[in-house]
Write a structure and sequence with these properties.
It is a single chain. With 253 residues, the protein is of the alpha/beta class. It is built from 6 helices and 10 strands, in the order βαβββαβββαββαβαα. The protein has a 5-stranded mixed beta barrel. Helix 2 runs parallel beside helix 4 and helix 3 crosses helix 6.
Length: 253
């Protein structure tokens, strides 16, 4: 019955596993879900493609949220309404400082709230911070996978392409990467008492003022080095969910 489905994503109101990996691209959601045992597509409406299955015995959700925080936050909110309590965003990002290479992973500790939506929900002083246990689980999973990785604060920015307006540069602030949705997830999780974190695959040097068009030929996320990083990142995300659950069960024991 339609009343048993949530209105935006069309996911069931009940019955989903409490742990989720969320990604931007519906095709990436399918690719991550292919790593699961017994994966089934739960729903596919607009950009929101949702799967359930299990990773090493842990029931999980894999879902896509599309491009940009205003649409993504709708998925986060409805998955939370449906009972998801732990979220890990697995996406791509542009490097913001030297030493972070294409295909490397960035484990987010916090995010700059330039996302275009959360400032309409609460004051700008409210922080977007990852759960410490999520940061540590992602770092541990990356180490176990042998994946090159870094920790740091990322910049969630609503505009993907540069415009005519001058933008304040965070390049000198030590930020690790720039992406489009994470701060909306972290704020949603904090407001609802959920656990959330994020791991991002570097697909280029994508901050406006850092791009060297002559040296790089422009932004191209469709390279083998990025694809290899995405494959590693998918495993890291799923394994981090398992580690988080393992830690939760240890605390209750």
């Amino acid at each position: 019955m339609t009343q048993d489905l949530l209105p935006i994503t069309r996911v069931p109101r009940t019955g989903l596993p409490p742990h989720a990996v969320v990604v931007g691209d519906p095709a990436r959601a399918a690719a991550v879900a292919a790593l699961l045992d017994g994966a089934e597509e739960v729903s596919y409406h607009r950009e929101y493609r949702v799967f359930s299955g299990s990773w090493k015995g842990l029931p999980v959700v894999v879902a896509s949220h599309g491009v940009g925080a205003p649409g993504a936050i709708l998925l986060f909110q409805e998955l939370a309404d449906a009972g998801v309590r732990t979220f890990l965003r697995f996406g791509t990002a542009g490097a913001m400082k030297p030493g972070i290479g294409d295909g490397d992973l960035v484990v987010a500790e916090a995010a700059v709230r330039d996302d275009g939506v959360t400032h309409q929900l609460l004051p700008p002083e409210y922080p977007a911070v990852a759960a410490p246990e999520a940061v540590l689980a992602l770092q541990r999973a990356a180490r176990a996978a042998g994946a090159p990785h870094h920790r740091g604060v990322v910049w969630t920015r609503a505009a993907f392409q540069p415009g005519l307006l001058p933008l304040f540069s965070y390049a000198g602030a030590g930020l690790a990467a720039i992406e489009m949705e994470l701060s909306a997830l972290l704020v949603t999780a904090s407001l609802r008492g959920l656990v959330a974190g994020g791991v991002l695959v570097i697909d280029g040097t994508n901050a406006d003022e850092l791009v060297d068009e002559q040296a790089t030929g422009g932004y191209d996320p469709h390279r083998e080095v990025v694809a290899a990083g995405v494959e590693r990142g998918a495993v890291v995300s799923l394994e981090a969910l398992r580690l988080l659950t393992e830690a939760e069960e240890g605390e209750r024991a």
